[in-house]
Amino acid sequence: MVLHKTDPALQELLHRVLPQARLHEMQAVTGLSGQSWRLETSAGTLLARRTPTPAMPQVNRQREFRQLLRLRGSGLAQQPLAASRDWLLLRWQPGEVVAPEALASHLPQLLALLGCLHRQPLCGYRLSLLPLLQRYWQQCQQRHPSWLRALRHLQQQGEPKPLRLAFLHMDVHAGNLICQQGKLSLIDWEYAGDGDIALELATLCATLPQHTAQLIADFAQRYRLSPDVLQQQIHRWQPWLRLLMASWYQLRAEQTQSAAMRHLARQHWQQLHSPF
Q1: What local confidence, expressed as pLDDT, does residue 145 receive?
Q2: What is the rounded CA–CA span in Å between residue 172 and residue 166?
Q3: Could you count the other beta carbons within 10 Å of the beta carbon of residue 199?
Q4: d(Cα 60, Cα 237) in Å, to the nearest integer?
Q5: Which of left, alpha, beta for 256 (phi over 0: left; psi -120 to 50: alpha)?
Q6: Distances from the Cα of 35 to the Cαs of 120, 172, 190, in angstroms?
Q7: How many CB atoms lie within 10 A of CB 119?
């Protein structure tokens, strides 16, 4: 979809950062969140990420901008330009989005990329899943029968004590990986923050379940941890991650009224009590 009229808030942000730039075209970027736009300007290609309306828990474009500023020069992420309450403006990341079926072939590079990310200084924004899950519950209109039971069970259980705190991306999947000349970089940092490396690994295992053993062995070696201890920690995080994924799809399905999103939400509720 191409827009010919631009949000005044975006125009103002663009003018503030690049006062001489002229906007030629604004085109929606495909993705689950549906909040990103490719801008063709006289100063080059940019990416604009809009603050979701209605709001999505944890998404804050100004915080995302600060996270990206911390990574500037690391080669891990695209270059941030500016942010406002409504928009985040970045340089476009050249390259090709990794296809889901090709993700496994990029695994060695991806693990090296995450190793580099986890060595970055902590950002000071601590990820806490229980308040996040509670916000999803409060914002949704339709609540799955097992949702409240699962939420109360996790609340009683308490979040696992981290094995090791690190700066996490927290949304690693093929659609958020760009490959350019054989080098990988991550995009979409809206859920990033400080958390347990085992939680990041649990999200990756959910994406690549057939490679779980390899992922655990590699992470254990990189962080000098016992593979058994790491596997147990992943097991502790999995119920939290399942409920988080199901809650996210449920809210997006209600917000977008998309048949595809409703299908994904139903699928994730069905998987809530299944092993990864």
Answers
A1: 75
A2: 15
A3: 26
A4: 24
A5: alpha
A6: 27, 18, 11
A7: 11
Torsion of CA 30, 147, 271, 203, to 10 degrees: 60
Q: In this model, does residue 8 exceed pLDDT 60?
A: yes
Q: What is the largest CA-CA distance in the chain?
A: 57
12-50 pLDDT, tens per residue? 999 999 999 898 889 988 765 668 999 999 999 999 999
Which residues 6+ apart lie within 8 Å of 180 measured at CB? Answer: 93, 94, 95, 96
Under DSSP, the state recorded for 181 is: T
pLDDT at 129 over 90: yes
CA torsion sign for 273, 164, 79, 81 is positive
Nearest-5° Cα angle at 32, 170 to 27: 120
Cis peptide preceding 80, ω within 30 of 0: no
Helix (H) or strand (E) holding 38: strand 36-41
Q: How does strand 87-91 pair with strand 165-168?
A: unpaired
Mean pLDDT of 197-208: 95
Query: What letter represents residue 241's amino acid?
Result: L
Whether the pTM exceeds 0.85: the reply is yes
